[in-house]
């Protein structure tokens, strides 16, 4: 037909539709663009916008739809899809509501599914509380979208139940088709199982989540967006561990077409994790490149700067990291608090606690927070700067007093002396008492007692403080203490002593007799002192002989040690018949020559023992009657051991 009449409108329309049905979107768009005079926007607007949408030219598709003079139902359906891809969820929600209200056909269920997907996206990415649309969750798609909305609200247990219901509905609906295999069902369930694993990960059940993630990857689903999200979540579980596995999973996030399947925040999270993985794998240049790219895309975002600072810290460039964070805080005051907290942490890591305190005190919006006050007081106490710690307490208490004064003029509703205010006053008083600042603590304790005159604990602290400063005032205040009768407690002493775990166990009366009974009744019992056992003396100890002063030293370290005499026995071996002994063997037997003098004098014993004396020092005396062989064995054992008695 076109060969006969190339400008035939109907033939051109039919050709474009055929190309679209075959998936040739580029060729179809080319036909439309080359015949713009014939195929005007009113005639071919839907087909042109659909080709641009399928080619991921979303902005062009939106312009084409908006330029059409007549908005048909088909264009409105496509308009809703385009708005969803552009993440304009409010406009998309309004478009689908209008479609559902003004159309009645067999596609109503699909429109409701798309509407629930928009609500889930708002809850997840914009943290908007979803409204109840009154949709009946009769299909697994509706149940799945409802579960995603619950995840965005943090209702994880309810979301898990919805996903389990969606899984059952999916199996039920697909099993009715005889042509659908079990593999097809598992492939369809992959996205539901992926959300289940994500909930497990959020709940801290990382092992279960990791197992389910890997099962989905083994199925090799065709949805590149699903694979990219699962791979990213596995990387977040691995963190700085199992880096080799994370590097393999990163490849799944780089698949073709991923950028068209995921939202901007999902893609941004994947890029952040790539930069962190590069840091963990010591790829400093790659980490800096990725973080710089992220910062250029989102200049106000905090994470790229924190990643750059972390990389600098790994390179021991703490000063440069702090300077980078300071520049960002100056340029973006809205994020200054989080940045300064990070800077303080770096200062603490360097050991500059005082500088860290200065940074923390510069965060005006957090100065009065109990957590900040507690941190500053702890750090100043560590540095023994008690005055600065008390100053922190004073500034926080003054802030609450000023806030209270403003509330009295009707600016806002605030209870006078709120629990936080009173808690700060009490902590300040306790801190001052602990560090001996009695006079300063008295004013705080008086303020607390005025707020609650029945607080006996505060009154006792106040009396204790006044007793060191003004004893008369302490006596006057002590009259406000309750009497002993009102404070008596009905306690069964016997039952308390006999209870399990009592540290004191009273002896039974039957075992107390004689002296023990008198001691039990006495005013003060004296604990028996254990007698020291006398040390054992050698059997051959002679009190008349002066002990060797070097007896505590090993034999080798003594001054008179000359070493073992080598070679004497070797000279006598093998010089006779087997079993025979030499004539001089008896001369070498020390047991037969007990009266021979020692080879060297003992230090300190010359005055008591003469050179010809037969008295042997205690260290070398042997028990009488012992065989000669046993004497030799005992001498061998004693060599090298510590002597003494």
TrEMBL record:
Subcellular location field: Cytoplasm; Endoplasmic reticulum
SUPFAM superfamilies assigned to the protein according to its UniProt record, in alphabetical order: TPR-like (SSF48452)
Biased composition annotated in UniProt, kind: Basic and acidic residues: 539-560
Cellular component, GO annotation: endoplasmic reticulum; signal recognition particle, endoplasmic reticulum targeting
Gene coding for it: Srp72
Segments for region (Disordered): 506-645
UniProt entry tagged with the keyword Cytoplasm: yes
Keywords: Coiled coil, Cytoplasm, Endoplasmic reticulum, Repeat, Ribonucleoprotein, Signal recognition particle, TPR repeat
UniProt protein name: Signal recognition particle subunit SRP72
Similarity comment: Belongs to the SRP72 family.
Coiled coil: 58-113
InterPro entries named among the record's database cross-references: Signal_recog_part_SRP72_RNA-bd (IPR013699), SRP72 (IPR026270), SRP72_TPR-like (IPR031545), TPR-like_helical_dom_sf (IPR011990), TPR_rpt (IPR019734)
Domain Signal recognition particle SRP72 subunit RNA-binding: 507-563
Domain of life: Eukaryota
Record bears the keyword Magnesium: no
GO molecular function per UniProt: 7S RNA binding; ribosome binding
TPR repeat residue intervals: 190-223
Biased composition (Basic residues): 527-537, 629-645
GO biological process: SRP-dependent cotranslational protein targeting to membrane
């Amino acid at each position: 037909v076109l060969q006969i009449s190339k400008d035939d409108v109907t033939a051109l329309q039919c050709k474009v539709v055929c190309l679209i049905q075959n998936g040739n979107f580029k060729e179809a768009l080319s036909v439309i663009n080359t015949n713009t005079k014939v195929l005007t926007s009113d005639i071919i607007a839907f087909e042109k916008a659909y080709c641009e949408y399928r080619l991921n030219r979303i902005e062009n598709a939106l312009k084409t739809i908006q330029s059409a003079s007549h908005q048909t139902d088909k264009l409105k359906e496509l308009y809703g899809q385009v708005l969803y891809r552009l993440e304009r969820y409010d406009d998309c929600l309004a478009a689908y509501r209008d479609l559902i209200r003004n159309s009645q056909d067999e596609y109503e269920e699909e429109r409701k599914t798309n509407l629930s997907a928009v609500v889930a996206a708002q809850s997840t990415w914009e943290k908007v509380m979803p409204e109840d649309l009154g949709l009946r969750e009769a299909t697994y798609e509706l149940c799945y979208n409802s579960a995603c909305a619950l995840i965005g609200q943090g209702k994880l247990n309810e979301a898990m139940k919805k996903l389990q219901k969606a899984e059952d509905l999916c199996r039920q609906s697909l099993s009715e088709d005889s042509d659908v295999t079990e593999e097809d069902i598992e492939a369809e369930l992959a996205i539901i199982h992926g959300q289940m694993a994500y909930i497990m990960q959020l709940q801290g059940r990382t092992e279960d989540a990791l197992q389910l993630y890997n099962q989905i990857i083994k199925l090799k689903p065709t949805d590149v967006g699903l694979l990219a999200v699962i791979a990213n979540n596995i990387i977040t579980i691995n963190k700085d561990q199992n880096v080799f596995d994370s590097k393999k999973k990163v490849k799944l996030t780089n698949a073709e077409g991923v950028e068209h399947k995921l939202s901007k925040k999902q893609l941004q999270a994947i890029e952040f994790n790539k930069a962190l993985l590069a840091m963990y794998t010591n790829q400093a240049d790659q980490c800096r490149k990725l973080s710089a790219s992220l910062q250029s895309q989102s200049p106000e975002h905090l994470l790229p700067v924190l990643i750059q600072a972390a990389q600098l810290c790994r390179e021991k460039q703490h000063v440069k990291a702090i300077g980078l964070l300071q520049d960002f805080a100056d340029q973006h005051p809205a994020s200054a608090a989080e940045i300064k907290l990070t800077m303080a942490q770096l200062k603490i890591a360097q050991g500059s606690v005082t500088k860290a305190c200065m940074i923390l005190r510069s965060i005006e919006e957090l100065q009065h927070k109990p957590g900040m006050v507690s941190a500053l007081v702890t750090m100043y106490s560590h540095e023994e700067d008690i005055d600065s710690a008390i100053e922190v307490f004073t500034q926080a208490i003054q802030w609450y007093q000023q806030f209270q004064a403003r509330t009295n003029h009707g600016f806002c509703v605030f209870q006078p002396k709120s629990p936080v205010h009173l808690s700060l006053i009490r902590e300040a008083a306790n801190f001052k008492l602990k560090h001996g600042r009695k006079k300063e603590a008295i004013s705080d304790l008086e303020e607390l007692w005025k707020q609650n005159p029945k607080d006996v604990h505060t009154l006792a602290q106040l009396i204790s403080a006044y007793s060191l400063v003004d004893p008369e005032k302490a006596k006057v205040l002590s009259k406000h203490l309750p009497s002993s009768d009102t404070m008596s407690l009905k306690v069964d002493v016997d039952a308390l002593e006999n209870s399990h775990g009592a540290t004191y166990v009273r002896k039974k009366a039957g075992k107390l007799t004689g002296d023990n009974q008198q001691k039990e009744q006495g005013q003060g019992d004296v604990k028996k002192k254990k007698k020291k056992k006398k040390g054992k003396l050698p059997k051959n100890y002679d009190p008349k002989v002066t002990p060797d002063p070097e007896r505590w030293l090993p034999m080798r370290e003594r001054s008179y040690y000359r070493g073992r005499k080598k070679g004497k026995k070797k000279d006598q071996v093998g010089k006779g018949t087997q079993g025979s002994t030499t004539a001089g063997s008896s001369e070498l037997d020390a047991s037969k020559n007990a009266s021979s003098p020692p080879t060297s004098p003992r230090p300190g014993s010359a005055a008591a023992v003469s050179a010809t004396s037969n008295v042997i020092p205690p260290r070398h005396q042997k028990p009488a009657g012992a065989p000669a062989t046993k004497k030799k064995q005992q001498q061998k054992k004693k060599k090298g051991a510590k002597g003494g008695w």
